[in-house]
Amino acid sequence: MVVADNLKDFTFWITYPYFQNLSSFTLIFLLFGYSMQIFADFAGYSLIAMGLAGLFCYKFPVNFNFPYISTSFSEFWQRWHISLSSFLKEYLYIPLGGNKKGTIRTYINLFVTMFLGGLWHGAAWSYAVWGTVHGSALAVERFLKGKIKLKESRTISVVKGIIVFIFVTLAWLLFKLPDFSHVKAYLSSLKSNFFLEDNYAIITYILIYSFPVVLYHAAYLWKSQISFLAFRRMEYLFYGLMIFMILVNSGSPGAFIYFQF
Amino acid sequence: MIRRSILFTVICLILHFLFIKAVKPHWKWKATQHQWQENIVKAQKFIYGESFSKRKVIVGSSLSNRLVMDSLEDFCNLSFNAKSIFEGLALIKKSSQPVQSVYIEMNMVLGGSDPSFSSSIVDPVPFYIKKYFFYLREENQPVGYVGELASYKIVKPVFRRMKSLFGNNHGKNTSQQSPLFNKMLKNHAFEFNEKPSEEKLDQVFNLLKKEITYFAEKNIQVAFFEMPVNKSICNSMRAVAVRESFYKYFPPQKYNYIDMPDCSAFLTTDGIHLSDTEAAIYTSYFKSSLKGDSTLHHPFQIVR
User: Which of A29, A182, A205 to mutate to test the interface with B (most CBs of B within 10 A)?
Assistant: First the structure.
């Protein structure tokens, strides 16, 4: 929550009309920061809920499983907001026929499921478009999977991971700006504000506050390596630092992003 | 594991305390990270009495936050970005500062009050914790110190180098002649050309009246001033409605006003915020208005 609450005060600039004053580079970093914030916020309070439930001997299922390491859109949805994606799969996608009614129907089912999943977040066109965009990505991915066979290698996985992350991050814009005209204005500023001076302070703080989220994902990937054991031995330093940051650098309190849905 | 984690936290806190004590007084970089924090730091400095010698207080929004305070040595500026005047007034009421006079900005009064802002500072728990453990105050956040330094020493040079490699120049500051300025001006003009409803005006001005009555009971002198804005906004529907409401609720015969200078002399950066040079010009005008007449009236061309 320290990460999300601090990032919130920078991603605030993704608000119409303020972002129109910022350079394209700054706008890109703001989107990156929002991607980190929404994860830290939502995964953070899911963990708080799990911890609280644990105090009463209830074991809640994991809701986020390192989503930003996903190398495909289908993997992303198996790792992000697992409770919602499982619900959509079991109560929408499978009843619609899933992948059992032919190739075209499978694409339509994916599209419809994600469109309705988008609308679940609110009665605004931008949420519907957000769901549609993800539905389209899942359908295209499924189509390409059947056509192109890529050799498994670390480089290809990294490239795929980057593509998925960029796509997901751009799509968050529809979450942050539910008014579709503001999304268009943001993209237009992104395209035309290259001549403006970058706001280095915003960029720096976004990089600093996003670092724990990046580290969290990197540590997961590193987990299988033997060198990770040395890191584990120093784990207490990270916990100590986290408590210190809660005490001295906790940021301003704000409502959880997902409380609006 | 838990014991070692807590021990490391204590070590970090001690190091942080030592840094604040020994290094902060010589630190030349800005340590606030964003405008919300700047507001909080300013409010904390006031509430913890770090400006006790300043008995004249300016309350306002981001517009009067541009005033050059080095020229107004006797003043404390409680103007907050993205806030109205009510946050400053609430802090004055809740502080034990011996305030002599309050100068209230007229422009952004319709923003209403945000009680959560002042309560985040004056509520007993944060107030006393941050009063006695000063190193937990917002101005002492460690990331603020690291961030500003990293921004100037690492991020800025790296990005500029990267951009020059891609053939992009360093970028230009937002110029008053740029298309962006015109866009911002148009946005603000559109916003200000909407006349506020009578209910809204009554609600805000009745609230303000209550505040002013409180100050009058405490023998605190009150004066109003209007920050100059771009001439296309100066006499907009909203600006005129607000101005007229001020004169209706607080008649100039009874209350002190520092009249707004001719707006055509001010271009502003976005329609409503003065540029640094314009802010310096207005600050000297503001100061001369105070010196020129003890009753705070000024023989300048007025906008009424």
Answer: A205
Q: What angle do CA A64, A69, A71 make, to 5 degrees?
A: 115
Q: How many CB atoms are closer than 10 A to CB B243?
A: 19
How far, in whole angstroms, is CA A251 from its chain's centroid? 21
In the block, residue with structure tokens 């937002």? B174
Asked if A207's CB is within 8 angstroms of B171's CB, the reply is: no
Residues near A121 by beta carbon (within 8 Å), at least 6 away in sequence = A127, A130, A131, A175, A261
Least CB–CB distance from A9: residue in B34, B142, B147: B34
What is the tens place of the pLDDT at every residue in B138-172?
A: 888 999 888 988 998 999 999 888 878 776 655 55
CB contacts of A21 in chain B (<8 Å) are 174, 180, 184, 270
User: Residue ranges per domain, chain A?
Assistant: 2-260
Closest CA of chain B from A115, distance in Å = 34
How many CB atoms within 10 Å of residue A250?
Answer: 15
Helix (H) or strand (E) run with residue A152 in it: none
The secondary structure of B29-45 as a DSSP string is: S----SHHHHHHHHHHH
Cα–Cα dist A138/B105, whole Å: 54
Report the C-alpha gap between A25 and A30 in whole angstroms: 9
pLDDT 10s digits, B253-293: 999 999 889 999 899 988 999 999 999 999 999 998 887 64
Angle at A213 (CA atoms; ends A127, A241), nearest 5 degrees = 140
Query: Is A121 noted as a catalytic residue in this protein?
Result: yes
> B270: which residues sit within 8 A by CB, 6+ positions away?
A21, B181, B184, B185, B188
Q: Reduced to 3 states, what is the DSSP secondary structure of residue B271?
A: coil
How does DSSP assign B235-264, residue by residue?
A: T-HHHHHHHHHHHHHS-TTTSEEEPPPPGG
b/e code B110-140 from CB counts within 10 Å (16+ = b): beebbeebbebbbeeebbeebeeeebbbbbb
Global pTM reads: 0.84
Give the dihedral of Cα atoms A72, A75, A76, A79; nearest 10 deg: -160
A185 touches chain B (CB under 8 A): no
Measure Cα distances from B88 to A167, B77, B118, B126 in Å: 44, 9, 8, 18
Cβ–Cβ contacts within 10 Å for residue B252, how many? 14
Whether the complex's predicted ipTM surpasses the cut of 0.85: no
* Rg (alpha carbons) of chain B, rounded to whole number: 22
- The dihedral of CA B18, B24, B27, B32: what is its sign? positive
> Which tens digits make up the pLDDT trace of B21-75?
998 888 877 778 888 889 999 999 898 887 667 789 999 999 999 999 988 888 9
**Which two structure tokens, joined as six digits, stand for B68?**
């050059």
Gap between the Cα atoms of B124 and B219, Å rounded:
27
In whole angstroms, give the CA distance from residue B75 to residue B269.
Answer: 25
